[in-house]
Amino acid sequence: ILNFCKIKPVVNQVECHPYLTQKPLQQFCLSKDILLTAYSPLGSPGRPSAFNKEDSPKPLMEDEKLISIAQAKHVSVAQVLIAWQLQNGNVVIPKSVTPERIKENFDAFKVILSNEEMDAIGYRNLFY
């Protein structure tokens, strides 16, 4: 598309979370100066069960490593997942309608993850 378009895309919005990291796409977008916008950054916890397979991983919000990181930082797992996206250079659009959750999501900007924590979160890529 970049070879034929008259207006280059500036944003590519895709599902992105630790089970679907989109690393090759993220690197491509970065090389072309295109922002990657991550939707479902919490891993689609409300997805209908009909879409789950028998071997589906547990929801990210229940992941022991993520819970451990969140507890150590005194933040929520959602904030850790959003911070992981932000530190990866992605725009993040978590869905929320409640004022408390909106504030919690915004406060994820204050969460700083170490390189080790970033790697521990991102290694899960299951192409889910």
Automatic annotation (TrEMBL):
<dbReference type="GO" id="GO:0016491">
    <property type="term" value="F:oxidoreductase activity"/>
</dbReference>
<dbReference type="InterPro" id="IPR036812">
    <property type="entry name" value="NAD(P)_OxRdtase_dom_sf"/>
</dbReference>
<protein>
    <recommendedName>
        <fullName>NADP-dependent oxidoreductase domain-containing protein</fullName>
    </recommendedName>
</protein>
<dbReference type="Pfam" id="PF00248">
    <property type="entry name" value="Aldo_ket_red"/>
</dbReference>
<dbReference type="InterPro" id="IPR020471">
    <property type="entry name" value="AKR"/>
</dbReference>
<dbReference type="InterPro" id="IPR023210">
    <property type="entry name" value="NADP_OxRdtase_dom"/>
</dbReference>
<dbReference type="InterPro" id="IPR018170">
    <property type="entry name" value="Aldo/ket_reductase_CS"/>
</dbReference>
<feature type="domain" description="NADP-dependent oxidoreductase">
    <location>
        <begin position="6"/>
        <end position="121"/>
    </location>
</feature>
